[in-house]
């Protein structure tokens, strides 16, 4: 059995890698044509996608998945139309392939030029959200990469039909056969096989919960881009505009508490805590946010729940916020660099010096002054769709658009030069 | 014992990570001052370095190291002066830290700016060449990174004294204490500990033979940049200038056969093989190069040794060259993409169409037309010193200068924007 899984997954990766060589040379026009065909196929084949999804939903209910999980799993005609629109949006993005990174002439007359080329074959390991299937395939193809996907067991029927419709439409529109591979094996050993295939797979991007990401980071010999875990902070300086601070905190906590750019901890300078904390708590309560405060917070607002050490290291993904009073900005910076996940951090201040110091000293992908952490997102940053938000430092950091799916190649033009 | 090694290495990494926070904020002038001080320290302390190196050389002779290994290990006054000059050259390079990568204003008025920042803490695992100690420390400090080095047992006494002199000089000149860490434990478990410290170490760069690199790639949960393995090819097209081809092949094979950008296999179009191969073989023999040819080659030049399948996958690192006759360029490209290590590949041709096709279809860091593969090198590419040559696609590809030791950070300037 294990041998079979190994053979099946390896053959899929091999076929995709082979296809990637031709795919890398397609023009933007050819790739865009395929993306439009794929969008169209999703729309015309909506009924059979919905049918497969109903089976997943039924299984999910029997397995006792939570309402939130079931909602993530659910497909509707509207959600499928959104997937199709997403593919068309990807078609409209600038193609980074072939763009120059640098170009210069050396003293010996050699012309050296460096351009963007596709990575080759990208592995995506994800959980129960079927929309990832269309997004990931679209972004990989647009950037000239083949893709091998392995989705979670909860959405296996939906993902299988989606991937098969998309692969077929892509191939019919001129994408090399085999460029889109979906691993149907839900056994975990399929993931183990993928993580060893560094001969064929150039990078693995895990999308999902912290457990999945940790397992891939710790076990993959294929290079990995870590995504998604967000323990984001907002530091309210003693020079802050308190109205602005409240507005930004409410936005960052309540608009979509489940996403990674939502705020989890607010740090308040002690100089304004007596005045600001009660105001903030009142506002948060009207949004039904549970507050867990440090000891000093509980002294000011005795009805708060006391935060434990664990709270500072927790991504709630829910309407819960931890709040801590700090003696100065240095303590806030230390706290953030210690407990943050390197995602998005913000300072609210009217002091130029503090803003500059915060941005220099906080070690994260995105460091904000006077704005909500919720903006860390490919669309909001102006990159169009994103394949994820990198919280590591190598290769890509922050929202990953099409450029993050490329590597580079040096082209050297000689006239017989030797060294 | 294992627990001790774990504690010692972890504490070193922790101290270096702590220092990296301050180091990241130093100006170029401050970092350059330290590099000059380090260069000066190497020169004034040459006698004690030579003394330590003599002990390593003695151990090496007793262990029966090869003459080539002993030569790599050997330090002389002149070689130490070269190390010092290397540090001064690094001081003269442009500092990438703080350089802008992009900057734009979003429709909601948010200004988003992306700049280069240091990676943080870089781990270097290397073998018996003591000059790597000075190079790596210099490049890491110049790019604002702390560094933890672990050298091979053969050079342990030389490397320990070098690292200690450099760390002390750096600290005296204003580099934060702890920024340069040298792991003195030669037991392999010290490497195992480093490879698990992804909480502190941001990237590991292995420098050495294929065995070391494979072990690190397969076992490290810290992200790795693969370097150095070079199975480079030169394809001689039927439209090639044969004199130029000969000159380039001789250069690429014989000037420094042990380095990774030396050529290992020559592919010859069958259309010119009858004429070109005998010419090439004669020339190569005058340089004492052993030739291993495919069957067709042996038919043309019956005194050639027959190549085995293993030859096509071997980095000789020596005056040995494998030669294969191909029926067309497609076969050459397939051979290269199959056996190449993604390092440097060249075509010799006067045909525009073939040059373009070769550069598009060959998947390697550097693809040359009519020039020697020996140019793949940080200095030759105009980047100054290099920390290695990446043969992977993620983060960095080809010669890695200072920019390869940086990551990026988004700075967002708001006026109260919410989403």
Automatic annotation (TrEMBL), chains A, B:
Under the heading NCBIfam families, the entry gives:
PRK00197.1, proA
Instruction: Output this protein's name.
Output: Gamma-glutamyl phosphate reductase
Give the main localization category.
Answer: cytoplasm
User: Which Pfam families does the record match to this protein?
Assistant: Aldedh
Q: What does this protein do?
A: Catalyzes the NADPH-dependent reduction of L-glutamate 5-phosphate into L-glutamate 5-semialdehyde and phosphate. The product spontaneously undergoes cyclization to form 1-pyrroline-5-carboxylate.
What family does this belong to? Belongs to the gamma-glutamyl phosphate reductase family.
State the source organism's domain of life.
Bacteria
The subcellular location is: Cytoplasm
Q: Name the pathway it acts in.
A: Amino-acid biosynthesis; L-proline biosynthesis; L-glutamate 5-semialdehyde from L-glutamate: step 2/2
Mind listing the GO biological process terms from this record? L-proline biosynthetic process
């Amino acid at each position: 059995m294990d041998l079979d899984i190994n053979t099946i997954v390896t053959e899929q990766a091999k076929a995709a890698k082979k296809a990637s060589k031709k795919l890398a040379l397609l023009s933007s026009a050819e790739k865009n044509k395929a993306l439009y065909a794929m969008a169209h196929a999703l729309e015309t084949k909506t009924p059979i996608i919905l049918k497969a999804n109903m089976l997943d939903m039924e299984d999910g209910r029997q397995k006792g998945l939570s309402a939130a999980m079931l909602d993530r799993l659910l497909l509707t005609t509207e959600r499928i139309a959104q997937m199709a629109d997403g593919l068309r949006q990807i078609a409209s993005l600038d193609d980074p392939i072939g763009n120059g990174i640098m170009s210069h002439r050396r003293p010996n007359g050699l012309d050296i030029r460096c351009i963007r080329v596709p990575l080759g074959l990208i592995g995506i390991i994800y959980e129960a959200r079927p929309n990832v299937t269309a997004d990931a395939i679209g972004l990989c193809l647009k950037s000239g990469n083949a893709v091998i996907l392995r989705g979670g067991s909860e959405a296996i029927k939906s993902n299988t039909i989606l991937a098969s419709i998309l692969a077929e439409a892509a191939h019919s529109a001129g994408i090399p056969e085999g460029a889109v591979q979906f691993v149907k094996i839900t056994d975990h050993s399929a993931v183990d096989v993928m993580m060893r295939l560094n001969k064929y797979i150039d990078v693995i991007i895990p999308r999902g919960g912290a457990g999945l990401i940790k397992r891939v980071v710790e076990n993959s010999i294929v290079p990995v881009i870590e995504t998604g875990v967000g323990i984001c902070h907002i530091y309210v300086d003693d020079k802050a505009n308190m109205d602005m601070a409240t507005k930004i905190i409410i936005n960052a906590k309540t608009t979509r508490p489940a996403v990674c750019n939502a705020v989890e901890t607010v740090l308040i300078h002690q100089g304004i805590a007596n005045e600001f904390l009660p105001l903030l708590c009142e506002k948060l309560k009207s949004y039904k946010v549970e507050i867990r405060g440090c000891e000093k917070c509980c002294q000011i607002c005795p009805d708060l729940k006391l935060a434990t050490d664990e709270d500072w290291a927790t991504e709630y993904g829910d309407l819960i916020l931890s709040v801590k009073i700090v003696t100065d900005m240095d303590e806030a910076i230390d706290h953030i660099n210690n407990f943050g996940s390197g995602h998005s951090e913000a300072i609210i201040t009217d002091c130029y010096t503090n803003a500059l110091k915060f941005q220099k000293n906080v070690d994260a992908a995105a460091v904000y002054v006077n704005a909500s952490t919720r903006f860390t997102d490919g669309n909001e940053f102006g990159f169009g769709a994103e394949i994820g938000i990198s919280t590591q430092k190598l290769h890509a950091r922050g929202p990953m658009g099409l450029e993050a799916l490329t590597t580079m190649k040096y082209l050297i033009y000689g006239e017989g030069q030797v060294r």
